[in-house]
Amino acid sequence: MTFVIASACIDVLDQSCIEVCPVDCIHVEDEDRMCYIEPDDCIDCGLCESACPVGAIFDEPEVPREASQFKEINALWFKDKESARDRIEKFMEDGLSIT
Hints:
Helices cover 32% and strands 10% of the residues. With 99 residues, it is of the alpha+beta class. It has one domain (3-93): Alpha-Beta Plaits (2-Layer Sandwich). A hairpin with an 8-residue loop joins strand 2 (26-27) and strand 3 (36-37). Helix 3 packs antiparallel against helix 4. The chain is globular.
């Protein structure tokens, strides 16, 4: 299992989660609108979840149904950053609610 960052992180980028992660599995680059968790490196400690001031981080089984696409988007960023960024832009263009 892993933790997943959902849409509430978009354009917030507080990065408290990055500071507390003991295995450095949470990443963001200057051109990103949110942070991403590397699912293969996450050790499921949960420190990031409690550090997030906007409640954007969920244990994978707890990701709300309406935010389920963020499981894929987080993993995609580590394989194809531009595609993940495009998915975030599409999400925002579609005016979907932030979860």
